[in-house]
Q: What sequence folds into this?
């Protein structure tokens, strides 16, 4: 057993603001298995990014704080780790790729310098060695004329190139786990396809364990092995991707799938889920989704739904299946 | 160690060498401001003068009462001498000689040599004290912004207190207690002059620290020190250069003012000291006070012009 590499349980990250407590992540559980690609799916503001940042202890404090829960990695609880231990894990063991590569790269240093810095910091290589390694990585990411690209500043590269440079940087220390926070959101479709190809290769060649954060179910179908659907800071459904897409159980997941336009049908209006994401300061009582749910029952507004196992590896939190 | 030094050299020299295009761009933008170029030329001239001038001039401390109060070349003064035998005043006209192009002071010291050695001292004072102040201000300002919360509060309230403190009074007090020494004056100007820098850099760093690249650096395992020194400070480098250039004249003036009121280091010949010695004989030997005065005026003006030019050149929003 133990082919779980990263386990998140009962994770609660709250932000204490002047207007009240924002429960951005309110008890999330999931496990990442070795070599799999786990997708975190949800609308904007449902707590996907905060979950990712909490794993690495990057929540700004104040106002944020991890209230409860643990993040298990190699017999370590990352929530309780000292800052020094965390620093050694960040980047070397668990790396993260941010959504907006433009702002995630330091504008005053060249791409080469930034990758080299990262390699030298964790692997203690000499400058020339680190430079060679950085160039190999950039070549692997499909960046043409690497020698020149190394001396470019972030603003001299296109969006796709920047994203690739970011990925190269994250991979430079061969991390065990790679967290990708919406890496395809800020780029156009052709670049998106190229970046997804890179992730496919990572999975195939390096047996990398990936946490892929996205709101795009198309991307989930393309790359994911399992998916975790998050709503209002809670996990509502967790299942293999084929089941999430083919046989969604939770009304929210089903709603998301219905929203995808179907090319074989002609419709005037695209389907949508009524309402908007709840205000995280005042999450609704009971199931956070009940005000927008067309199958809502009386119990939904009173009690939090329990986790129900539908089949092997398919769990859903909904009163419908009790 | 050498590896480390090489790395630092690469970080500083690398961009200058590999980015000739960018350097040229900034140079062109600075050039568009004619006053800034003028200021830069004057500063370059002054530095050259201070570096190699003393090898070509007379000894600035050489006293010669035979040739005291000589006017500069092209000027003449009258000296009345009482003759005890004829009981008459004989008036002789003294004109400047090329031996002392800028004249001599009341003790017969060569003014040119004194002005040049004064340039050396004034530049030293300006650069060293500014260096201390900018270093302190940068560290305190950026640290304050980065740490935030109560640390930010404490550091900034401390800055406020330092700002309201009449530092000239402190300077006078310290010189009075410990005696006038140039090193002490430089040190005091340095450790009291960082407040403005800290304020400015804090506000700049506040907006930088919430940017994604800071989170990204931390996510890749960078320590707080590395984020501050490796990522935040390089991002405010252009601002630091401008602040430094603009604060040098203030420091030079502060030293001159202190010397003028008689609290300068008497073993040096700074411009302020010469100015002080010339003020009593303003009616008979005006050049002793006027010459260092002009130099101070030009130097301060040059640094201010250059600072203004650099500020406009580094600001991507300004159209020049």
A:
């Amino acid at each position: 057993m133990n082919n779980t590499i990263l386990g998140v349980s009962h994770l609660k990250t709250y932000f204490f603001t002047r207007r009240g407590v924002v429960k951005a992540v309110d008890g999330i559980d999931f496990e990442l298995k070795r070599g799999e690609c786990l997708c975190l799916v949800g609308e904007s503001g449902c707590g996907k990014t905060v979950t990712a940042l909490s794993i690495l202890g990057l929540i700004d404090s104040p106002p944020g704080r991890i209230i409860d829960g643990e993040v298990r990695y190699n017999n370590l609880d990352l929530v309780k780790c000292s800052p020094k231990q965390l620093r050694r894990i960040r980047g070397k063991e668990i790396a993260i790729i941010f959504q907006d590569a433009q702002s995630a790269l330091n504008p005053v240093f060249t791409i080469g310098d930034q990758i080299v810095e990262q390699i030298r910091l964790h692997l203690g290589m000499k400058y020339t060695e680190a430079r060679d390694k950085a160039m190999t990585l950039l070549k692997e990411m499909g960046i043409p004329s690497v020698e020149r690209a190394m001396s470019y500043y972030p603003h001299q590269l296109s969006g796709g190139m920047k994203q690739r440079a970011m990925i190269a940087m994250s991979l430079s220390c061969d991390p065990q786990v790679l967290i990708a926070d919406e890496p395809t959101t800020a780029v156009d479709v052709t670049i998106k396809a190229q970046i997804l190809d890179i992730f496919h290769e990572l999975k195939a060649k390096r047996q990398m364990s990936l946490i892929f954060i996205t709101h795009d179910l198309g991307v989930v179908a393309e790359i994911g092995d399992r998916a975790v659907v998050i709503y209002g800071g809670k996990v509502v459904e967790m299942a293999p991707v084929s089941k999430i897409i083919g046989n969604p159980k939770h009304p929210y997941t089903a709603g998301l799938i219905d929203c995808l336009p179907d090319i074989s049908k002609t419709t005037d209006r695209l389907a949508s889920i009524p309402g908007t994401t709840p205000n995280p300061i005042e999450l609704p009582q009971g199931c956070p989704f009940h005000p927008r749910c067309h199958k809502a029952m009386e119990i939904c507004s009173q009690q939090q739904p329990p986790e129900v196992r539908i089949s092997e590896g398919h769990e859903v939190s909904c009163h419908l299946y009790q | 160690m050498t590896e480390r030094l090489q790395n630092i050299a690469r970080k500083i020299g690398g961009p200058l060498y590999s980015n000739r295009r960018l350097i040229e761009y900034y140079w062109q933008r600075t050039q568009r401001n004619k006053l800034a170029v003028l200021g830069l030329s004057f500063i370059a001239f002054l530095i050259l003068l201070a570096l190699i001038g003393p090898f070509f001039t007379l000894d600035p401390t050489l006293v010669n009462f035979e040739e005291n109060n000589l006017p500069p070349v092209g000027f003449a003064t009258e000296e009345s001498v009482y003759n005890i035998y004829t009981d008459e005043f004989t008036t002789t006209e003294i004109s400047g000689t090329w031996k002392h192009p800028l004249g001599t002071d009341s003790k017969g010291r060569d003014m040119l040599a004194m002005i040049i050695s004064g340039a050396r001292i004034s530049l030293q004072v300006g650069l060293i004290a500014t260096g201390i102040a900018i270093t302190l201000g940068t560290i305190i300002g950026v640290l304050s912004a980065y740490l935030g919360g109560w640390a930010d509060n404490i550091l900034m309230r401390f800055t406020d207190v330092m700002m309201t403190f009449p530092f000239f009074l402190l300077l006078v007090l310290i010189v009075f207690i410990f005696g006038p020494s140039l090193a002490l004056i430089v040190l005091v100007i340095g450790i009291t002059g960082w407040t403005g820098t800290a304020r400015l850099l804090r506000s700049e760093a506040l907006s930088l620290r919430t940017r994604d690249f800071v989170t990204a650096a931390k996510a890749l395992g960078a320590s707080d020190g590395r984020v501050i020194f490796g990522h935040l400070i390089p991002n405010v480098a252009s601002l630091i250069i401008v602040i430094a250039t603009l604060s040098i004249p203030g420091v030079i003036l502060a030293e001159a003012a202190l010397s003028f009121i008689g609290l300068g280091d008497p073993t040096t010949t700074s411009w302020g000291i010469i100015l002080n010695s010339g003020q009593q004989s303003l009616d008979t030997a005006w050049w002793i006070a006027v010459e260092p005065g002009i130099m101070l005026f030009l130097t301060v003006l040059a640094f201010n012009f250059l600072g203004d030019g650099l500020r406009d050149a580094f600001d991507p929003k300004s159209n020049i």
Q: What stands out?
A: The longest helix of chain B spans residues 111-147. Chain B touches chain A through 26 residues (CB under 8 Å). The two ends of chain B are 44 Å apart (CA to CA). Chain B has a mean pLDDT of 81.
